[in-house]
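stage 2 :: seqdesign
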């Protein structure tokens, strides 16, 4: 019998985790590692490896083909363009201290789509081949251009078989027309709620009055749009609050999911906060946070999840979780999603747009008037996969991990950094270490939360094989 190449890493249990290229995994002791490395596998070893999908006979047999199928299913297949981020204005009615979207003051002229750009955007949307579309409105504060949002949504609803809309709003000033717009069942709200109310006031709203107005609007949104409101906190890595306080803040507003993000190394934030290499301190915080959530879920009837940890957990347990654009392999630019900036320019991602604003690098890919220019996508997409990366090929997490070229470019000014030196790699090693520590845990509280976050009734032992 031949064995698919196995990559390994020590675990806190004292054993080793072994993974193959298709995402199959198991734990085994050091003695097995030595037998495997020295070509001394026993009959028991071979039977275990075969039963767990790591062994095969001659090329072409069913086990070999099944492995190839599982390997292929781990890859993201770029779809046609069906997700667009539209920035109809850069103007904003707040000036948050870590604003990462390069905003301008509400009264500043010349930072909105004009009529000609709006018509060109509609014309471009009309020419897309997809029948389903997701349109995310960003800014600035997109509700300052409710008229544009209405026109785009009206057009998309009649043009596409399925259309879904997300409004990324600070929920600071919401008039009756905006509430009516947000109340439609095909429209979702994404807002920012900082880790604690005090931090929200300090970094975003600035006064008690504005903070109270935002919180009232958040509660109204929860009532008016049940199940369609998400909120994201932003964390200053040098002032991380107690996880329990953050969980309490989110629970008190009926939110059951949050997405831990350190201040992005983008836009204006990098001038005010330490953002570049937050790796190990951030991983320690994520770990504390996940354990706080486990305690919360053990005692509460309304469980809570951390979106990114749950996403990584699901990517470990099952292929096909490629919906999150920052964690895919390959992660091609300019294919399945695109950003249209306030001047009609195309960008591969929102972060690429910010880098352009800062004068770091111009990653524009044409514009809505003259059409899409594939030159930058072609140049970068040759590097947009981890499959042949000199570090990733030795990493047991390769099948679950991904790549984020724009993040590398932003932090290091290049896309060819040794992978293990990147912030992306350090953060993901930490997350996947934690994922495997928890799914192999025998603590009932841990198992309850892990099953919940994975979308399973319970963690079946067949999923978590251990070889002796
Ligand atoms: S980026 Fe790092 S964690 Fe991810 S597969 Fe590569 S080496 Fe592993």
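stage 2 :: out
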């Amino acid at each position: 019998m031949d064995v698919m190449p196995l990559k390994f890493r020590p675990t806190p249990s004292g054993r080793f985790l072994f993974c193959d290229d298709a995402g199959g995994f198991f734990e085994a002791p050091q003695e097995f590692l030595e037998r495997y490395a020295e070509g001394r596998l026993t009959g028991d070893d071979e039977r275990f490896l075969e039963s767990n999908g790591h062994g095969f006979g001659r090329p072409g047999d069913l086990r070999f083909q099944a492995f190839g199928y599982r390997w292929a299913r781990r890859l993201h297949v770029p779809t046609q363009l069906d997700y667009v981020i539209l920035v109809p204005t850069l103007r904003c009615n707040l000036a948050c201290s870590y604003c990462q979207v390069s905003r301008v003051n509400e009264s500043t002229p010349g930072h909105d789509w004009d009529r000609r750009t709006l018509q060109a955007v509609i014309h471009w949307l009309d020419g897309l081949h997809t029948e389903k579309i997701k349109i995310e409105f960003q800014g600035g504060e997109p509700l300052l251009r409710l008229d544009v949002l209405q026109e785009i949504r009206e057009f998309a609803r009649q043009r596409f078989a399925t259309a879904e809309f997300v409004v990324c709003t600070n929920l600071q000033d919401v008039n009756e027309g905006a509430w009516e717009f947000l109340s439609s069942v095909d429209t979702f709200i994404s807002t920012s709620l900082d880790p604690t109310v005090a931090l929200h006031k300090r970094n975003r709203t600035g006064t008690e009055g504005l903070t109270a107005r935002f919180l009232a609007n958040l509660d109204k949104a929860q009532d008016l749009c049940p199940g369609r409101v998400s909120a994201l906190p932003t964390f200053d890595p040098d002032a991380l609050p107690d996880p329990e306080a953050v969980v309490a803040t989110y629970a008190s507003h009926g939110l059951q999911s949050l997405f831990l993000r350190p201040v992005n190394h983008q836009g204006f934030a990098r001038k005010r906060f330490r953002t570049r290499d937050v790796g190990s301190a951030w991983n320690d915080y994520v770990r504390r946070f996940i354990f706080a959530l486990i305690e919360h879920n053990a005692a509460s009837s309304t469980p809570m999840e951390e979106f990114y940890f749950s996403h990584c957990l699901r990517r470990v347990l099952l292929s096909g979780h490629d919906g999150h654009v920052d964690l895919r392999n390959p992660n091609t630019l300019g294919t399945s999603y695109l950003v249209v900036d306030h001047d009609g320019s195309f960008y591969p991602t929102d972060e690429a747009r910010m880098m352009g604003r800062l004068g770091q690098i111009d990653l524009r890919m044409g514009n809505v008037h003259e059409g899409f220019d594939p030159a930058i996508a072609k140049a970068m997409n040759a590097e947009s996969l981890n499959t042949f990366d000199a570090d990733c090929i030795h990493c047991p997490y390769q099948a679950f991990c991904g790549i984020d070229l724009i993040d590398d470019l932003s932090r290091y000014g290049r896309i060819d950094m040794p992978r293990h030196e990147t912030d992306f790699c350090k953060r993901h090693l930490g997350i996947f270490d934690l994922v495997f520590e928890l799914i192999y845990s025998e603590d009932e509280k841990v198992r309850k939360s892990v099953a919940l976050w994975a979308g399973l009734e319970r963690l079946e032992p067949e999923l978590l094989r251990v070889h002796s």
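stage 3 :: structure notes
- The chain is about 40% helix and 15% strand.
- Residues 279-299 form the longest helix (21 residues).
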